[in-house]
From TrEMBL:
It comes from the Archaea. InterPro entries: Ald_DH/histidinol_DH, Ald_DH_C, Ald_DH_CS_CYS, Ald_DH_N, Aldehyde_DH_dom, MeMal-semiAld_DH. Gene3D superfamilies: Aldehyde Dehydrogenase, Chain A, domain 1, Aldehyde Dehydrogenase, Chain A, domain 2. Keywords: NAD, Oxidoreductase. One of its GO terms (biological process) is thymine catabolic process. It comes from Pyrobaculum oguniense (strain DSM 13380 / JCM 10595 / TE7). The keyword NAD applies. It is an enzyme of class 1 (oxidoreductase). Its EC number is 1.2.1.27. This is methylmalonate-semialdehyde dehydrogenase (CoA acylating). One of its GO terms (molecular function) is methylmalonate-semialdehyde dehydrogenase (acylating, NAD) activity. NCBIfam families: MMSDH. It holds the Pfam family Aldedh. Residues 25-486 form the Aldehyde dehydrogenase domain.
Length: 491
């Protein structure tokens, strides 16, 4: 199942511990570097959505009552099986998503860290700050809070991290005693389907972890299902807003990570060599298809001339190619539609006055003419009122914006509807501190283009980058559990 192949046929769902092929209709899934179909994704019927949720609900009865240390043993085995299969799984991720194998390995390592975080679940259940126990609160009455799992959670995930993002939620949710139904992106469902095998090998009881495939309609049916208590969603802002509203309308709790436009500010006093390398590569990791990908490069005062030339020189060295080729630095975009969308944004930016210093539109990799490739693109003379400066591109584009001073840079950094991450390059602690205080984003990077926290920190954004109160990763302990107050009097 997990191994690298040319074709995966109909990608199976994983319901109640068994793989099954189903679906009302089928959608194609691709190897984006070849530009060819490698499988078909079934769109789960209403009865298949129902079967998966019922399997999870039925498993919850026993699973939630298992001693926490027993649930932990399953997770320990999952970690071992996951590590044993990481190399093969990375290649499958690379093939279906279009990221390089090195990027896929990086993703899987992050997924492993999420398992490590979830291994602390007994401590989370006993969290001294949030679990209280007071004797004689009133005469002969003792009160205590008990943290409990809630039931079946829907996990709905985007295409760009088909293993890591499910891993942010699933190990934690189930080790705390819940059961889950995962609906991965229909664009690259193969790695998520492979996860079923890992859960089987780890010995999990049927129904604890389920995978169904499909599109937005499948996801909506899952959220609305009466037995689903909550949804952890990660994806675009447009869809995230809908999911948040739908969850609220149906009385479900929701944790919604959404789109981004992450500013990177460079002050004139920034370290030239280290900053250039970090920025020029940071913009193009995974061809810019990350929620933490830098979105705008804001060069302040003298930094404008000082950094621009070096960044362009470095960007020109990025090798675009097939994602499984070890000499490739940057692979293709996820789909032909995505390539057209990003190229269209670049064209509109140029029409609006931006100057291409490196133009990746129409890029072709000779050996793979059908692949969804676009070359790295650097646009100069971008202004904050242009679409390319305001909207998430999710592609290999580096827009350069000039700011006269620090004040203006902070203003620009806060001037989009998003607030996922923001970074500053400087050797001044004062600027760094001010930036961290005044920029309205969930993650702040100082001298790093990609500000990604590890799973022991909460992960979320501000403004249109996040909807909900409880963030992902360790914060989700509160999302996946609730505290009940038990008051006891014994005569
Ligand atoms: P997307 O919003 O198109 O799809 C995400 C998921 O939502 C998919 O599983 C899709 O099938 C499902 N979906 C589609 N319509 C739906 C509907 N009406 N109701 C419920 N679910 C529906 O996103 P994508 O293109 O797969 O991923 C890229 C986006 O994800 C970018 O905007 C990126 O910034 C964002 N992202 C955010 C984070 C974060 O943590 N904030 C992390 C990774 C990606």
């Amino acid at each position: 199942m997990i191994s690298l192949r040319d074709s995966y046929g109909v990608v199976p769902m994983f319901i109640d511990g068994r793989y099954e092929v189903g679906g009302d209709k089928r959608l194609p899934t691709y190897d984006p570097g070849l530009g060819s179909r490698i499988g078909e994704v079934p769109v789960a019927s209403t009865s298949e959505v129902d079967a998966a949720v019922r399997a999870a609900a039925s498993a919850f009865e026993k699973w939630s009552r298992l001693p926490i240390y027993e649930r932990l043993q399953y997770l320990v085995r999952l970690k071992i099986v996951y590590e044993q299969n990481m190399e093969e799984l990375a290649k499958v991720v690379a093939k279906n998503v279009g990221k390089t194998v090195a990027e896929a390995v990086g993703e899987l390592r992050r997924g492993l860290e999420a398992i490590d975080m979830a291994l602390a679940s007994p401590h989370f259940l006993a969290d001294v700050k949030k679990v209280m126990n007071i004797a004689n609160t009133e005469p002969e009455i003792d009160m205590e809070t008990v943290r409990e799992p809630l039931g079946v959670f829907a996990i709905i995930t985007p295409f760009n991290f088909p293993v890591m993002i499910p891993q942010w939620f699933i190990p934690l949710a189930i080790t705390l005693g819940n059961t889950v139904v995962l609906k991965p992106s229909e664009q690259d469902p193969i790695p998520a389907a492979a996860l079923g095998e890992l859960f089987q090998k780890a010995g999990y009881p049927p129904g604890v972890f389920n995978v169904i495939h499909g599109d937005g309609s499948t996801a909506e049916a899952l959220i609305k299902h009466p037995e689903v208590v909550g949804v952890a969603f990660v994806g675009s802002t447009k869809v995230g807003e809908k999911v948040y509203a739908l969850a609220a309308a149906h009385g479900k709790r929701a944790l919604v990570g959404a789109g981004a436009k992450n500013p990177v500010v460079v002050m004139p006093d920034a370290d030239l060599t280290n900053s250039v390398e970090n920025i020029a590569t940071g913009f193009f990791v995974m061809a810019g298809q990350r929620c933490l990908a830098p979105g705008n490069l804001i060069l302040v005062g003298e930094a404008y001339e000082k950094f621009k030339r070096h960044i362009v020189e470095r960007v020109k060295k990025i090798r675009v190619g097939y994602q499984l080729d070890p000499n490739t630095d940057m692979g293709p975009l996820i789909s032909s539609a995505s390539k057209q969308r990003v190229e269209g944004m670049v064209t509109r930016a140029v029409e609006a006055g931006a100057k291409p210093l490196v133009d990746g539109r129409g890029y072709r990799v000779e050996a793979y003419p059908e692949g969804f490739y676009m070359g790295p693109t650097v646009l100069d003379e971008v202004h904050m009122d242009m679409e390319i400066a305001q909207e998430e591109v999710f592609g290999p584009v580096l827009p350069i914006i000039y700011a006269r001073n620090f004040e203006e840079a902070v203003q620009f950094a806060n001037a989009t509807k998003y607030g996922n991450a923001a970074s500053i390059f400087t050797s001044s602690g004062k600027y760094a501190r001010e930036f961290a205080r005044r920029v309205n984003a969930g993650n702040i990077g100082i001298n790093m283009a990609i500000a990604q926290p590890t799973p022991h920190f909460p992960f979320g954004g501000r403004k249109k980058s996040f909807f909900g109160v409880l963030h992902a990763q360790v914060d989700a302990v509160d999302f996946f559990t609730d505290r009940k107050v038990v008051m006891q009097r014994w005569w």
